[in-house]
Each structure stands twice: as C-alpha cells, then as structure tokens.
Design goal:
It is found in: Cytoplasm. Specifically methylates the N3 position of the uracil ring of uridine 1498 (m3U1498) in 16S rRNA. Acts on the fully assembled 30S ribosomal subunit. The protein contains seven helices and 13 strands. With 232 residues, the protein is α/β, with parallel strands linked by helices. The protein binds S-adenosylmethionine.
Length: 232
C-alpha cells in the first residue's frame, strides 16, 4: 500500500490531511480516488491506515481507521556532517543516512569546507521520501550549524565519535562504542577533512577519534560506513 507523510499538525482526530507535494502525488501522480486506502506516517512514530474521504485541488483527506505508535529508536544516532561541496553527494548521503535510521542530521560549516550551498527544502523532501521508502516512522530533523563545535554543544549529551583518517586503525567504531549508549553523535568531515584546530577542539570537548580503516573514504562513504555500524 502507498505510504504518505502528514506531520502531526495535519492530523486532527481521526482525519489526516495531505498537502502540497504529498497531495499532488496521491491525486495526480498515483491517481488515487475517494475510497482508495493508503498509509500515513506522521514522522513522530505514528502510522495510520484508512480510506480517502475527500480530494480537493489542494488536499487529500483520509479517514484514519487504524493507528499504531512506534517507540523511538534506540540508540538515537545523530550524524554530524561537514557540508559537502557536491550537492548530489550531500543529498545521497542524507538519503542513505535516513534509510540507515539516522535520528538527526546536523550539517556544519568547517574550516576546510565550503560556504553554505544547501537547499534545506530539497534535503527535507529527500528525507521524507527516504523515510517512507524505508518504512521508518520517525523523520529525522536536518539542521545547519556554523561549526563542528556548535554541533557538539547542541548534542552535548550524546557520546561523540569523530571519524578521522589519522586515528589509529585499532580504534574502530565498534571498539570505541562497545558499551551501549542511548545517543551517539557521529562526526564526519567534508571533502577537505577536519582541520587540526577542529580536531583539537572536538577532542577537548570529549570526542573520541575513530578509524574507518586504512583507506581514505569519500566524505559520504565515510558517513554511511560510520552509520552502518549502528544498524541492528
Ligand atoms: N584529505 C582529507 C583529510 O586529510 O582529512 C580527506 C577527508 S575525507 C575525504 C572526508 C572525511 O571522511 C574525513 O574528514 C573523515 O571524517 C572521514 N574519513 C574518510 N576516510 C576515513 C578513514 N579511513 N577513517 C576515518 N575517517 C575517515
């Protein structure tokens, strides 16, 4: 059955309303009609099912006959990524991070990175699509930060691992994070890597340097390699 997204603000009692792209997709692309059944996820763990009751130019209204509420994922994984210059690579990384179950994606400007060149509307649309495609019910927030330090301050309560090419190869993600924590912040640098100052500041704040092996991975590969260690 087709899955659509409606945030909690579009769910009123036993009715959900699809708007904008989601409504267009249901009525114009999928050509769904009144009475057709579909699944709605609210991005906060709610999964609903029911028939379409009304289609207007701007919205599709669904009667919610079934409801399941899913628990928040454990551990919560926050992927902190330096902004990658190539937009398609950044978008790829975000799509795959959502599929792998990221709780939050925190993008940051970095010393060896580029000036901000990010379309948040596109990234959010990619995250919604990846959430639906991979049958997740929680939609990760995507946030933008001025520095890696700012990301660490924001997620001060997470156990922080910084992927660094010069980390000892014995220090794999698994070797460092054997004890289960409930929240991890995984930091990955942009194409140009982290500057020595960024590494110094992050380690002073408590980040543990981890290796992804002896070879240099592209930033988006490194992000997915780090995330994949937490897939259960
Ligand atoms: N020349 C850059 C440097 O010296 O850091 C290369 C950066 S690499 C393309 C982008 C990011 O991926 C790095 O900042 C790091 O976070 C991560 N990364 C790539 N390969 C890695 C490895 N073997 N171990 C740990 N992290 C790695």
């Amino acid at each position: 059955m087709n899955i659509f997204y409606a945030p909690p603000s579009q769910i009123h009692g036993d009715m959900a309303e699809l708007l904008d792209q989601e409504a267009q997709h249901a009525s114009k692309v999928m050509r769904m009609r009144e009475g057709d059944r579909l699944i709605v996820v609210d991005g906060k763990g709610g999964r609903y099912e029911g028939p379409i009751r009304r289609i207007t130019k701007k919205s599709v209204q669904i009667e919610l006959e079934e409801h399941q509420q899913f628990d928040e994922p454990v551990p919560k994984i926050i992927l902190g990524m330096g902004i990658i210059k190539k937009r398609d690579r950044l978008e790829f990384a975000i799509e795959k991070a959502v599929e792998l179950g990221a709780w939050h994606v925190a993008l940051f400007r970095s010393d060896h990175g580029i000036k901000e060149n990010v379309r948040m509307d596109r990234l959010n649309a990619i995250a919604i699509s990846a959430m639906k495609q991979s049958l997740h019910t929680y939609l990760p927030a995507i946030s933008m930060h001025y520095s890696v330090e700012e990301v660490m301050d924001e997620f001060y309560d997470a156990y922080c691992l910084m992927a660094h090419e010069k980390a000892d190869t014995d220090r794999s993600v698994r070797s460092i994070s054997k004890d289960t924590k409930d929240k991890y912040l995984l930091l990955v640098g942009p194409e140009g890597g982290f500057s020595p100052e960024e590494v110094e500041k992050a380690t002073v704040k408590g980040a543990k340097l981890v290796s992804l092996g002896p070879y240099r991975l592209r930033a988006e590969t490194a992000a997915l390699a780090t995330m994949s260690q937490f897939v259960t």
